[in-house]
Design brief:
The complex is a heterodimer of chains A (363) and B (269).
Chain A lengths: L3 H4 L23 E2 L7 H7 L3 E2 L6 H10 L1 H15 L9 H20 L9 H22 L2 H4 L1 H6 L6 H27 L11 H25 L2 H15 L7 H6 L9 H8 L2 H13 L1 H6 L8 H9 L19 H25 L8
Chain B lengths: L3 E15 L8 H10 L6 E15 L3 E6 L5 H8 L7 E6 L3 E5 L10 H11 L4 H15 L14 H12 L6 E5 L7 H16 L3 E5 L3 H7 L2 E6 L2 E6 L2 H11 L6 H6 L10
Parallel strand pairs in B: 3-7, 3-8, 5-6, 6-7
Antiparallel strand pairs in B: 1-2, 1-4, 8-9
Helix pairs in contact in B: 3-4, 3-5, 4-5
Classes of the chains: A mainly alpha (363), B alpha/beta (269).
Chain lengths: 363, 269
């Protein structure tokens, strides 16, 4: 009991006064009878205990994630429902938001600036691009704050943290499905026929979702430690949108004589194979018959008609079909690029996120 | 006795806090920092746990006492595997369940959805969740409130629902951080019954409480923390409680109470 007096002199701690320098002077050798004689690490390992808060092995992690699949879907659905509970129009906003988005862009770029030149059926072209890009945009921006948003949950329960960015991408996918219900109505009203090509939308959206998950995992890790990411991201994403042919046709910019990309075939090609442009082009190809029919190479080469398009794209928007440029990626090659982006980014994103698994709680 | 359940080996935990008042955070200071090429603004490191070691065995109930900010909650989070260690390690047999006052369920969702999501997050299957749900709702005793968003709950009701969810899965390690303090007498009785049940199944319970009588009643071992370090740790629960009381300016009472008529029942002030 000799050590007892060294804990602190009675009275050194006066009442529940928080902080201050009157705190007990902790002795160099506290009295601790909860220690066995042998080294603790050996004891723990001998009894088969596992170290906590360390990164689990990759395969085990993937397994745990798979086991939590119902948590991920439940989390996404619940969040989606709760998102608009405070709004008077409630769930209607899920449909209104994409509609208003498309309306604003149509007003500015379709009516005021007249970018519609060079594309047949500009409204369908624009709205498809906006909705598909919006999926990636929202997934990016929400994923970058997911760890901060759910810090209390992370600090309360143990589960593989990759559930959270996955859940966030799933929320956006659910919103996208509603957007597409709106989109189908818009393109039908615009006079597009229902064709078997529409089935191709599903594989494109699967690839895009996989791509978004990969990016979401990367951004979630960055955003967890650096808040600047979520501040900067909207600007990066907006720039990306303007260079991915959401509002105008990259093909037109490349083909027409006065197009900004006419003299830069390499740049034009790179812009066309960037993931956002790939998924947008593939969805447009599947959904819009007029767009499909006007893609360069859709009709036999005809120098006269192609020349008309190169000079007067506004007057003959569908004559781009008669041009056969060598510098634009073909639709089959876009499928390959789309699959490649999805696969590479998903694998890299998963590994990147997993490597910091043990650090997400610290804030 | 022979089987250790939790081994804490020279554990250090450091929180990193951004934006302390050392830096006002204006645009001008940020620009200056960039020009001077300083790395990050005003990171303050809070060394919350400074070298703690102990072993807890199957069937133990370990009380953790200490003043506000002494590192009790941090220690529990580290044992639950929710906070990474700066140095040293925690070894456990399985994952622990942490019950804190502000342990997050998703507050804009209904109690019912929180029950389901909580169960799924803990790794239960949909079938197990479906079976456990009525039990959890019944145990929590929140009644009709189960269909309201959790932000409409009182503190006590929230704590009850959380306890009900976390104890639904048979965890071997239960970490209770003041979660029982906000419950009413009936709920406290139910929770203690569940804690005893878990100990009887050779689980381990950690209990943080400012109500020292609760520790005296429940725990067979005790750890006294001060500024992230152990002041005293051992089996002599009444003895250490009394020393803590005296050090806090109170009057020793637990040794005497333990020797005569069991434990006091009222709260210690």
């Amino acid at each position: 009991m000799t050590k007892q007096g060294r804990v602190s002199a009675p009275g050194a701690l006066s009442g529940p006064v928080a902080g201050g320098d009157s705190a007990a002077t902790v002795t160099a050798e506290p009295e601790n009878t909860l220690l066995p004689g042998e080294p603790l690490r050996d004891l723990a390992l001998r009894h088969g205990l596992k170290q906590t808060a360390i990164r689990p092995p990759l395969r085990g992690y993937a397994g745990e994630l798979w086991q939590r699949r119902y948590f991920i879907t439940g989390f996404a659905t619940a969040r989606n429902i709760a998102m608009y509970t405070e709004a008077r129009l409630g769930q209607l906003w899920q449909v209104l938001t994409p509609l208003l988005n498309a309306g604003v862009y149509y007003l500015i770029f379709g009516l005021l600036l007249g970018t519609s030149r060079g594309v047949p059926d500009y409204i369908s072209f624009l709205v498809t691009g906006v909705f598909v890009f919006n999926f990636t945009q929202r997934a990016f921006i929400t994923s970058s704050t997911v760890i901060r948003d759910t810090l209390p949950l992370i600090r309360a329960l143990y589960f593989p943290r990759a559930c959270l960015p996955l859940g966030y991408v799933l929320i956006e996918l659910q919103q996208l499905i509603l957007s597409f219900a709106v989109l189908f109505v818009i393109v039908l009203v615009a006079g597009e026929p229902i064709t078997p090509y529409w089935l191709l939308i599903f594989p494109v959206l699967v690839l895009q979702s996989v791509f978004n998950v990969g990016c979401g995992l990367i951004l979630a890790r960055w955003g967890a430690s650096i808040d600047d990411v979520s501040q900067l991201l909207p600007f990066i994403v907006r720039t990306w949108m303007y260079t991915s042919g959401v509002l105008f046709s990259l093909e037109t910019l490349t083909l027409t004589i006065h197009g900004k990309l006419h003299d830069h075939p390499t740049l034009a090609y790179l812009l066309q194979i960037n993931p956002a442009a790939v998924y947008i082009t593939l969805v447009r190809y599947a959904l819009l018959a007029k767009y499909r029919g006007s893609l360069p190479g859709a009709k036999p080469y005809n120098a006269h008609n192609c020349g008309l398009y190169r000079l007067f794209s506004g007057k003959y928007p569908s004559y781009s079909a008669y041009c056969h440029p060598t510098t634009l990626p073909s639709i089959p090659s876009l499928w390959l690029y789309g699959a490649g982006w999805a696969l590479v980014v998903a694998v890299v994103g998963f590994l990147f996120f997993w490597r910091a698994e043990a650090r997400y709680g610290r804030g | 006795m022979a089987n250790p359940m939790v081994v804490v080996d020279d554990l250090h935990v450091v929180y990193r806090v951004y934006g302390s008042n050392a830096d006002k955070g204006t645009a001008a200071t940020a620009l200056l920092r960039m020009i001077k090429r300083q790395r990050r603004p005003s990171i303050r490191e809070v060394h919350a746990i400074r070298g703690i070691s102990f072993v807890a065995y199957r069937g133990d109930a370990v009380g953790v006492i200490g003043r506000n900010g002494s590192g009790k909650s941090t220690l529990l989070r580290a044992i639950a595997g929710l906070l990474p260690s700066e140095q040293g390690a925690v070894y456990t047999d399985g994952h622990g369940a942490l019950l804190g006052v502000n342990a997050a369920l998703l507050e804009d969702l209904t109690g019912e959805r929180n029950v389901v999501l909580g169960c799924l997050a803990m790794g239960m299957t949909t079938q197990e969740t479906k079976e456990a749900k009525p039990r959890i709702v019944e145990f929590s005793g929140v009644g009709d409130f189960i269909n309201l968003p959790m932000k409409a709950y009182s503190t006590g009701m929230g704590a009850r629902l959380r306890f009900a969810i976390a104890s639904a899965k048979s965890h071997d390690i239960l970490l209770v951080d003041e979660a029982l303090a906000t419950g009413d007498a009936e709920f406290q009785r139910k929770s203690h019954a569940r804690i005893d049940e878990l100990r009887a199944r050779a689980g381990t319970v950690f209990l943080v409480a400012h109500n020292l009588a609760e520790i005296a009643e429940t725990c067979n071992r005790i750890i006294w923390l001060e500024k992230g370090q152990i002041v005293k740790a051992g089996d002599d629960v009444p003895g250490i409680l009394d020393e803590y009381l005296v050090a806090s300016g109170g009057v020793a009472r637990f040794v005497e109470a333990a020797a005569t008529a069991g434990y006091p029942s009222g709260p210690v002030t």
